[in-house]
Design a protein that fits this description.
This protein is an all-alpha fold and 372 residues long. The chain has helices at 40-46, 49-58, 64-76, 82-90, 97-110, 120-145, 159-168, 174-187, 194-204, 209-221, 228-239, 245-254, 274-288, 291-308, 315-325, 332-353; strands spanning 24-27, 32-35, 38-39. It binds acetyl coenzyme *A and oxaloacetate ion. The active site is at 264, 315.
Length: 372
Amino acid sequence: MSEQEQPAIHKGLAGVVVDTTAISSVNPETNSLLYRGYPVQELAADCSFEEVAYLLWHGELPTDDALLVFEATERENRPLDPTVKRVIDDLPLTAHPMDVVRTAVSVIGADDPDAEVSTPESNLGKSVRLFAQLPSVVAYDQRRRQGLELVEPHEELDYAENFLYMTFGEVPDPVVVDAFRVSLILYAEHSFNASTFTARVIASTLSDLYSAVVGAVGALKGPLHGGANEAVMHVFDEIGTADRAEEWLDAALAEKRKIMGFGHRVYKNGDSRVPTMKAALDALVEHYDRADLLELYTTLENAMGERKNIKPNLDYPSGPAYSLMGFATETFTPLFAAARVTGWTAHVMEQLASNSLIRPLSLYDGPAERHL
Ligand SMILES: CC(=O)SCCNC(=O)CCNC(=O)[C@H](O)C(C)(C)COP(=O)(O)OP(=O)(O)OC[C@H]1O[C@@H](n2cnc3c(N)ncnc32)[C@H](O)[C@@H]1OP(=O)(O)O
Ligand SMILES: O=C([O-])CC(=O)C(=O)O
């Protein structure tokens, strides 16, 4: 390219279509999200999280027989290897829980003698193993921070029930289990978001699946992406009560702060997943009798609409929902990671099935050539 020709720069890759995908379709025009063609709202209403994971990986919902086999495999894979437990135990409590998840995925990978085998069957096996073990990692980390013993997985419980059981030592009310199941389904997949794209970049070098997931966890941690669900709760704590929300927002906007849980790179008119998660939050608010929390939620949402016309994203209702369920705030993004590992690994396998090294160009704007 000559010096005169100035290529278009797509900062943040905004608006750039880099590849095709058959896994999900995010449609801001119709405000819809489809997983393998199915509206996510229908999946959230009728499916278990196991069925949705199977759909993302295989392209079709499981038959009854296939589901039984898949559920049995997931349950067998839940217990953590002693090496993984030991490494978690050795990590300081000052480490963020996302650092624990990132390290645990790395150790699970390093412990796998087939880590370097990259056939579709082997990668599917690794995906199921990570899917089954991340709840054990996340639940154990929350418990150890509270000085509690690890709760071993319960093989008669489904994924969502068992996750809550391992975290809290009991299966909560069905209202809570259902809200949790819905959140996992909504968080599972969202096309070429930053963490999934990170996983695809790593996979495109023909690195292993575990490395791709480690990178994705790192990308998800940031507050402009998955870290926002944790950050929303810090905002709620900072504001305190609904009557202080408008004043807080005006001050935050005056300081040019980004308001966590609002805005989206693709949806500019509202996130398709929010109404479903908001309904789950409403059910939790009623169950726990926390109208005060809902008042704060609504006041801030309305004020943000009036001031900036910016709508909430999925992290806005998920943060307070996870808080009501009893999760520690710093555990919210690990919950997102546990759900999104389904989408990440589906994308790694899709990338590998039709690979091209991901390597964009940049426009140099440093010093002109010079010599010593
Ligand atoms: C599940 C998920 O990962 S969803 C995303 C979770 N992240 C968050 O909630 C963090 C808060 N939100 C944001 O920072 C942004 O909305 C992002 C990063 C998600 C999307 O950003 P972009 O697509 O790059 O939007 P962009 O930054 O161009 O915003 C356009 C305008 O809206 C403003 N804006 C966007 N989001 C916000 C926000 N949350 N608070 C305040 N202003 C905002 C920007 O400041 C910008 O204003 P300007 O034109 O006056 O400079
Ligand atoms: O799509 C995005 O950019 C972020 C998002 O909502 C997600 O990953 O769920």
